[in-house]
Every structure is written in structure tokens, then in C-alpha cells.
Amino acid sequence: MDAASAAKDRVDRALALLERRLLDLKSRAAGSSRVPEDDLFAPQPSSETDRARIHELEAAGRDAAETLARAADAIRLTLSEQEGR
């Protein structure tokens, strides 16, 4: 497997993991929260459940950003290595 394919596989795995986490959070939140499932910008959480959901979504967002940043770095490195050949 060449470096570009390896980098693409890493990005694909990171995106699949992110998608699974978001679907899991949405499914848990939909069953227990009074806030509409896509309303991430509710001004004041009205319960501890809402605060926990917001915290989980923020953590998932941070994890996703870090994962995508690592994937982007890997792609940049791969591309710069290929340009140097």
C-alpha cells in the first residue's frame, strides 16, 4: 500500500469513528432530552440531562477536530514526501 492510500484509509477510519460517535450521542439524547436533537445552540440547558448532552457533544466535537487534524497532517506529510520524489 502506498503512502497516499494509507493516509486515505486513516482519514476514512477517523470519519467513520466520528460518524458512529455522533449517531450514538444523537440516539441517546433523543430518548431522554426535551431539547430538540439538532438544537446544539439552546441558550440555557434546562436540566442536568441537557448539560450532560451538551458536554458530550462538545467533547465529541473536540475529539473529531483532533482526529481530523491528525489525518490532515498525515495527508500533508504524504503529499510532501511524494513531491520530494
In short:
The protein is mostly helical. It has helices at 3-32, 48-83.
In terms of DSSP E residues, the strand content is under 5%
Shape designation: elongated
Order of helices and strands: HH
Compute the separation of the termini in Å: 17 Å
Radius of gyration equals 18 Å
Q: Sheet with the most strands?
A: none
Tally of DSSP helical segments? 2
Task: Give the uncertain stretches in residue-range form.
Answer: none
Helix/strand class: mainly alpha
- What level of helicity do the residues show? over 70%
According to DSSP, the number of beta strands is 0
Mean pLDDT: 77
Describe this structure in words.
It is a single chain. The chain is elongated, with a radius of gyration of 18 Å. It has helices spanning 3-32, 48-83. The model has no long low-confidence stretch (mean pLDDT 77). The protein starts with a helix and ends with a helix. The chain is mainly α and 85 residues long. Helix content is 78%, strand content 0%. The protein is built from 2 helices and no strands.
Give the SSE layout.
Blueprint: H1 3-32, H2 48-83
